[in-house]
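Any chance you could type out some protein's one-letter sequence along with its backbone structure tokens so I can compare the two?
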Amino acid sequence: MNNTSWKVGSGLFINLWHDSWCGEPLYHSLNIQQNVLRWLPTKVCDINHDQKWLIPNHLDLLFPNLKNIVQKVILPVEPLEDQLCWNHVSSGMLTLKDAYEFKRLQLPNLSWTKTVWCKDVPPSRSLLVWRLMHDKIPTDEKLMERGCSLPSLCSLCLSCSENTFHLFFECSFAFTLWCWLTSVLDFSILKKFNVTIHPPKAPDIKEVIWHPPIGLWLKCNTDGASNNLTASCGGIFRNSNSEFICGFVDNIGHNSAYIVELCGAMRAIEIAASQN
């Protein structure tokens, strides 16, 4: 019942102390022990009369804050049935769709189409890459997994059985092809066919000189990185002799680069504080 709350009508079905009808349960907000509750009224209807709050004197003396908490809840003009509401929707009505959205694993929305489809690449090749990423290429190995009985032999190198990894990376034909593609000189062929080439920009390399701490001090260097899928941070502690003392790596989930950098610094502070 942690994700529900009651809308007070008559109060016949609402537990006065354990149900959430005026915020958090009253036994928690008023710090009432369980052995005391059995001597107290149990229903919300016990503290209202003619749709007005009427708190017994002994309850008012025992719990002075009870009146202020209860009077924030507005009773209906006419007695209505008590309504149990779902806290995560504005209407309070729980539907099958809401229950599914609440229980399912929430993953970030990714613009995966820009990663797979490119205007300079034919759709058939993009589809092949997409199937390769999901290991759905119909190789001999995959066909045998589905019950097909057949001998397996790579039709390109004629030396190994055919599976996805061998076909694209281990095969001698594939190896030669990858070497050709990675050669900068071979891009001249594309230029002859007036194919627009967008080479990646040269990285901006900056020289960073690390200075060790002085004396008995330790220095921690932290960093973080994020992309559309995940984000992580890490840090390394070293002493004045540049010796590794300890380190950490944390998966932050789906967050911005700013949050990741901040989490890395906070984690380093927590580790340093725990060692003192």
Residues 219-274 form one domain. The first strand starts at residue 4 and ends at 7. The mean pLDDT is 85.
